[in-house]
Amino acid sequence: MKIIKKTSDIRDLENIWINIDSENNSLTEFQTFSWNKILYSHFQKKKSIKKVSEIVFLVFETEKSKIIIVPLMLDMIEKEASIFGQSSISDYLDFIYSQIEIDDLYNVVEYLLGMYPDFLFLFDRINESSLLFEMLTLKYQEISSERKICAKIEVKSNMNYIHSLSKNSRQNYRTAVNRINKSNLTYEVSIDIGKVNYQRLTKLYSLYVMRRLEKVKSSIRIKLKSFIKLVVMEVLHRSNDVLSDYLHSQENSLVAYININGDLAAYFAGIYKGRVLYISRASISNKYKHFSPGVVCLIETVEKIRNDFDIIDLTRGDEKYKIQCGAKQHYNYLFKLKGNRRI
After folding, report:
1. Which of 195-214 are b and which e, b meaning 16 or more Cβ less than 10 Å from the residue's Cβ?
2. What is the distance between the alpha carbons of residues 18 and 34, in angstroms, rounded to a whole number?
3. Looking at residue 237, what is its pLDDT?
4. Which percentage of the chain shows pLDDT scores above 90?
5. Would you call 192 exposed, middle or buried from its count of C-beta atoms within 10 A (0-12, 13-18, 19+)?
6. Does pLDDT of 157 surpass 90?
7. pLDDT level of residue 221 (50, 70, 90 thresholds)
8. What per-residue confidence (pLDDT) applies to 239?
9. Which one of 5, 6, 162, 322 has the minimum C-beta count within 10 Å?
């Protein structure tokens, strides 16, 4: 095992990164070069973070000439190291690799622990489906890990998705639709696939920020700093939001939204790789929450796109609406390691 390249500029690795990703379908969209390039561009704008943190991309070559890219974020003050993307909305984190063995990953991690002996490594958002998770649980059995819930909907093209839901979930969906109709309102669920224009993004992001503001204001422990931060987010959204930039620039983008009487009532936004759709953001309007617009939007969208995807990954969190829509739990993990001392 040896390092053949070390750089702080992700653009130096574009060709090799894309080639590796194209050979490994198990890596998620959050490991693609296009996603990480946008993350990197946003990091470059954050001067306060750059003062205390460094990004380093390490390229390892195994004995069998296989390549592994390790994107690291180093906190030089706290002496903590994490996979690049941990402080972002990336739902799953991993190294970048293809057709390697568990021992290759083990050798890489041991190399890192020796290379940065004073750093605490925080391997977070490692999904249970990844080879890195398998290696960490096998080779470092003595370390503790923290499990965090994620959720996903598994769909089949030959089944009626709505009929596959539990009796209670189908009843909740019908109740929501009937409630809208009985209120003399109309609704429409729309799906846009491909690059999203800024006019649409502005409406979606504004709803997302307003929903977060409402949650902060309704909290018993209101933090003025958090409130101000969200207001600033609303003003600077296009230049300050990774997901909006991605949705605007990449063809593998999907947004679904429900309008009630012409008003935006709820939406979700995601990105896809192959036949897996990753939902990274969802929000509803407080004005229409009585009608459960998020549930109606998600259920009708899944029914419409079930021929195009095998998995609708609702990513992190165990919110009630995910279970109502037929999602099953899976898990992310956090592992902590430091030199010869396992945390």
Report:
1. ebeeebbeebbebbbbbbbe
2. 9
3. 47
4. 74
5. middle
6. no
7. low
8. 52
9. 6
Neighbours of 232 (CB within 10 A): 12
Secondary structure of the chain as H, E, C letters = CEEEEEECCHHHHHHHHHHHHHHCCCCCHHHCHHHHHHHHHHHHHCHHHHCCEEEEEEEEECCCCCEEEEEEEEECCCCEEEECCCCCCCCCCCCEECCCCHHHHHHHHHHHHHHCCCCEEEEEEEECCCHHHHHHHHHCCCCCEEEEEEEEEECCCCCCHHHHCCHHHHHHHHHHHHHHHHCCCCEEEEEEECCCCHHHHHHHHHHHHHHHHHHHHHCCCCCHHHHHHHHHHHHCHHHHCHHHHHHHHCCCEEEEEEEECCEEEEEEEEEEECCEEEEEEEEECHHHHHHCHHHHHHHHHHHHHCCCCCEEEEEECCCHHHHHCCCEEEEEEEEEEECCEEC
Q: At 91, list the tokens.
A: 């739902």
Instruction: Say how many Å lie between the first and final Cα of the chain, rounded.
Output: 25
Average pLDDT, the chain: 89
- Position 145 scores a pLDDT of 85
Q: pTM higher than 0.70 for the full model?
A: yes
